[in-house]
Amino acid sequence: MGPSGSAGRPGRRGRRRWTLRTRLVVSAVALIAVVGAVISTVTAIALHSYLQGKLDGQLFDAIVRAELPRPHDPQRNEGLEFVAMPGQPFGSVGSRVAPDGTLGAGARVNRSQSRTPSERLTSLSGEQLAALASVPRDAKPHTRHLPRLGSYRVQYAGDGALVFGMPLNEVNDTVGRLVLIECCVTGSGLAAAGIAGSAMVGIALRPLRRVAATATRVSELPLHQGEVALHVRVPLAEADARTEVGQVGAALNRMLGHVGSALSARQESETRVRRFVADASHELRTPLASIRGYAELTRRGQERPGPETRHALGRIESEAERMTGLVEDLLLLARLDAGRPLSYHTVDLAPLVVDALSDARAAGPGHRWRLELPDADAPALVRGDTDRLQQILVNLLANARTHTPEGTTVTARVRARSTQRAGGIVRLEVQDDGPGIPGALLPHVFERFARGDASRSRSAGGGTGGSTGLGLAIVQAVVAAHDGTVEVASVPGRTVFTVTLPAAGEGAGGGAQGGGDGARATGARPGPPSSHSRRTASPHGGDRPIGERRDHDDAIADPDATGFPAAT
Length: 568
Hints:
This protein is α+β, with helices and mostly antiparallel strands. The chain has helices at residues 9-67, 126-133, 169-219, 244-299, 307-337, 349-363, 386-402, 471-481, 517-520; strands at residues 93-97, 103-109, 121-123, 142-146, 150-156, 162-167, 345-348, 368-372, 381-384, 409-417, 425-432, 485-491, 494-502. α4 runs antiparallel to α5 (307-337) and α7 packs antiparallel against α8 (471-481).
């Protein structure tokens, strides 16, 4: 729940919130659209049925009028004047049925204003007569499409003597206009509903957004380190259990209360453990030093012990030394965890690397050691604690020596470069061409007591040394105390530990350690490390604390005896 994982979350939360808002608005608008479509469809169908029924009534009346007796028109059963009777709409069609059952000539009412019925009629074509002839003769209205005239409601008379039809154009036009009006009104209503719904949903989701903002603040708290204080809560206005959002806020508050209690209990437990480790480490230093001193005193006493006794005393000294290194490492980690201040001053990393690599070469003569330093006009100056920085170098070099076979080339590289920030950065790299770190172990190499498998462990040669698993944890803790970063990249044949530290400001070289200029020359052999800066690499894993020297004569070789090549 740390800040490292929250960089991209606001955007994702915004997209989720906008998606929820959009879904609600779209759902409401879709529901309104469905309701509007149903209403419009039912209205259009009802209107169409009503107008068509009214037209069918007019059609029936026209047929009735056509069948009425006319004493002054003895040929009424032969002519087509009934089609142009007064009151008939324009476009009406009709025809007489011949005695053989076929349709004779047909006529259509045109738009002529003449009083003579024959002049207001236009003859029908054969296709149009065929369409009329296809109508069932059941004295009921039917819809037929007459070529080049459109849709008609057509009906035969009860006695089948004539057929009459009226156009559906006005009905269809009226229904079409109604559908168009309904579409425009529905579209405008949907747009207004969408705008109003979006505003209403936004207002309704505002308390939920405040609850989400509270959860966001909690997710950005550094709960994974340091003192834990989880005081963030959802405001009481959004924690009212009478509303749905309030129930969510109240549940979140209860959850945060439980999490805060658990974190406080965890922090208290970790504090007790750290205090115990620090106290135990501090108390164990004195008895371990006494055991080593008495063992060495006994071995060097006037009485000559036997071979078995000498071997036992040697083992006691070796194990006591190993235990001392472990205790010192635990004590250092406890102090760093407690935030003990370091002694900061301007330090040149070049002479520190020279000293550390000289000690590492003496402890691991079977490895090939290489050195690569920046030019003399670009010193690698940092602000830090000299002893702690030296311990970073010792631990990284000892890690490469301990976990790679003999014959491996180990390169220590220092690079200083400027950035947009004042002072730039200084990068320290320790690279080896060993078998690499297993992929499963790589994410955990900086954890305490993390150990590699046999593929990266060299033979101890019968020695008693072994890695304590705290060296890289100390490196990470010290680098973090210097506001730097440490990374590792490993593949078979190439493993690189990279330490990046902020460089010291320009002109702050008064506190830099000297002795580094000669070491920068390509191919130059490093001189003997100065007495104040010599550090030793522990043969049991490289985690020997800074400031402690070896007491054995054969523990370190003279760095003047042989040098190491500078990388080209």
